[in-house]
Amino acid sequence: MDENYIVKKSNYFIMNSNYDLSLQEQKIILTLASLVRKDDEEFKPYKFKIAEFMELVGVEDKSKYTEIPKITRELMKKVLEIQEGNTLLQVAWLNSARYEKGSGMVTLKFSPDLKPYMLQLKEKFTQYQLANILSMKSKYSSRVYEILKCNEFKKQGYIEIEIDELRKLLKTEGMYHQYQDFKRKIIIQTQKELKKLTDISFEFEEIKTGRKVTSLKFYIKANNSKTANKPLMLPTADNEISATVTELEEAPLEKISEDMAFGFKNVQSIMNEHTISDREALAILTSSNGDFNVIKKVYDNGKNKEIPNFIGWMISMVKPGAYIEPKKNYGKDSFNNYDQRIYDYSDLERKLLGWDKNETDDAGKNFNQGNMNV
Question: What top-level class would CATH report for the domain 135-227?
Answer without folding.
Answer: mainly alpha
